[in-house]
Fold this protein.
Amino acid sequence: MTETSTLPTVDRAGPRQTRPRRLVAELIAGRTGHFTAADLAADAQGRGLPLGRATIFRTLELLLGGGALERIDLPDGSHAYVECAPSHHHHAVCSRCGSVVDFDDAELAAVVRAVARRTGFRIDSHRLELFGLCPACQAGERSAG
Amino acid sequence: MTETSTLPTVDRAGPRQTRPRRLVAELIAGRTGHFTAADLAADAQGRGLPLGRATIFRTLELLLGGGALERIDLPDGSHAYVECAPSHHHHAVCSRCGSVVDFDDAELAAVVRAVARRTGFRIDSHRLELFGLCPACQAGERSAG
DNA sequence: GGGCTACATGAGACTCGGTATCATCACCGC
DNA sequence: GCGGTGATGATACCGAGTCTCATGTAGCCC
């Protein structure tokens, strides 16, 4: 390994503030509901922004790691990303417009405990996702027939 | 469309019983815990069985449709398949040995109702997956230190 | 049992989300 | 402003899954 004991400028700060990262953050802020990396790439191309695919994936990973973003699994098995608070919570996803709302899992904890007791499993993590129609899309459905 | 009103031999029965499909069923039966399509392909190749990749995917899809199999999303975002009963239920997945146990969602229904009330969403479907250690792997962890 | 036909197969090309590589660029602490 | 290090992006690559199409075969009818 031959490692020097005095690291010159390593570990001085968090991730760098770069133009591409700001662009990705802007694109995400300009979206509503969930989105994929491909969506962001298309947005960037549509707006003529110079943004590599790899950079988009890396920035998404960074945001995932920081908790500002979460990955959700849609019913069809594909992945999408949503902006959210860094605390532990779950998502309800509108299957029509893609909007997402967070909710906490106070009641869910009881379910998890019950399952753990019944199965003998030691539950370390869990994932709950709800799919349906948001209030706006329900209203649209009613008025549209 | 030019469709003939008398379909000659269509719709006479369910899916055919073929050798490749029996092979896939055998491979699945010979597994414990969750598995991927690639696992089955490797099994088949290892046992010198002639089985196309496309056929494996098609047979998995068939079994998914029939409810004999379910797809789960692992914490790392990858997909796997598990054998299970066709009734609605959820899975607890051992993150060490991959074994899976089913549990029903009697208590979960209350959680879903509460979220629907609070968010205004009309919840049509949901997914809950628990990850942790099965009893056997907990015992192994304790005895191994 | 034989023939027939629609369904199933499998090789391989393709798509798509995501990762690895690597030469070049630019942030930012000094 | 300099310098070093982390970031970028073009591109190749990977793995899961789908599509195509010529060929094979299950299984119904006789």
Remarks:
- Residues 53-66 of chain A form the longest helix (14 residues).
- Residues 19-143 of chain A form a domain with the Dna Ligase; domain 1 fold (CATH 3.30.1490.190).
